[in-house]
């Protein structure tokens, strides 16, 4: 399945001939990607194994990684994401919670007001209830999941046109996650906004997306495609997103195993009977017996 959702201009997100390497000496993280998404309301789920390129793609769309390749065109709201970045775009990723600044001894109410919470009081208060956040929490004394909730309040309290989410629900309990996804779905529909969401948690997501895409080793196997799929497709996929994702990921592992037979670096245990240098060293200085 490789049907594009393109309905012609105007598009909200657009990429053409996108290839990206983290440095010149490694394999490309993204390979010749071209796709587009129409203006919302739309909510696209990115499915793919670890290392498929989902996070890199979202970071590029967010303008956080510089592209130097000639001929590449990446746009949001018809504006170049590196030279004329558009307003109304919000990116939320997992690295935020590890920033030492947000782990300091600052009260949540002060933290939110420091980034403009007082300007978005109505949406801020709505999100405080949805995400079950205590304004008197101290950022250094709360759990990773609670800190993630504060991040989501901060990132979502201002209105956005395009929302890029990279695994930000991984720390949330199931109730808070469900309430958040309900809010995002309604917000997208009411304001005609666009969401692109990379996740590995598919339970409870069947009614959330309008489109689903499949990435493998830096490329799209299935371009963003209208969801739900027919009850049973030619590939045997059904309308449960968990089942679709599980089948795709199994196919990804099989595909990679075939590449390993023809020279791609193999994962898993080393099958050589000759001990590795590391094993030899640590065996020599093992005093546990």
From TrEMBL:
GO MF assignments: ATP binding; ATP hydrolysis activity
Listed PROSITE patterns: ABC_TRANSPORTER_2 (PS50893)
SMART domains: AAA (SM00382)
Listed InterPro entries: AAA+_ATPase, ABC_transporter-like_ATP-bd, P-loop_NTPase
Domain of life according to the entry: Eukaryota
TM ranges: none
Keywords of the record: ATP-binding, Nucleotide-binding
Keyword Protease: no
Pfam families: ABC_tran
Residue ranges constituting the ABC transporter domain according to the UniProt record: 13-242
Protein's UniProt name: ABC transporter domain-containing protein
Species this protein is from: Cerrena zonata
């Amino acid at each position: 399945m490789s049907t594009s959702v393109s309905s012609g201009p105007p598009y909200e997100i657009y990429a053409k001939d996108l290839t990206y390497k983290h440095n010149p000496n490694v394999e490309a993280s993204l390979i010749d990607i071209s796709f587009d998404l129409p203006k919302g309301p739309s909510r696209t789920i990115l499915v793919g194994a670890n290392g498929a390129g989902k996070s890199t793609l979202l970071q590029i769309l967010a303008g956080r990684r510089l592209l130097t390749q000639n001929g590449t065109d990446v746009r949001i709201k018809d504006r170049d994401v590196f030279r004329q970045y558009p307003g109304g775009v919000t990116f939320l990723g997992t690295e935020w919670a590890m920033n030492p600044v947000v782990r300091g001894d600052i009260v949540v109410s002060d933290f939110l007001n420091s980034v403009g919470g007082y300007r978005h009081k109505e949406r801020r208060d709505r999100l405080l209830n949805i995400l079950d956040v205590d304004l008197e929490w101290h950022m250094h004394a709360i759990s990773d999941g609670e800190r993630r909730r504060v991040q989501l309040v901060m990132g979502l309290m201002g209105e956005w046109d395009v929302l890029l989410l990279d695994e930000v629900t991984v720390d949330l309990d199931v109730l808070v996650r469900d309430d958040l996804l309900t809010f995002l779905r309604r917000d997208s529909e009411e304001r005609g906004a666009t969401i692109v969401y990379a996740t590995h948690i598919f339970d409870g997501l069947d009614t959330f997306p309008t489109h689903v895409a499949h990435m493998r080793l830096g490329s799209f196997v299935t371009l963003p495609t209208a969801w739900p799929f027919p009850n049973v497709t030619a590939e045997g996929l059904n309308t449960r997103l968990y089942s679709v994702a599980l089948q795709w990921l199994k196919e990804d592992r099989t595909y990679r195993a075939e590449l390993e037979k023809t020279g791609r670096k193999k994962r898993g245990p080393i099958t050589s009977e000759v001990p590795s240098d590391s094993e030899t060293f640590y065996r020599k200085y093992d005093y546990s017996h």
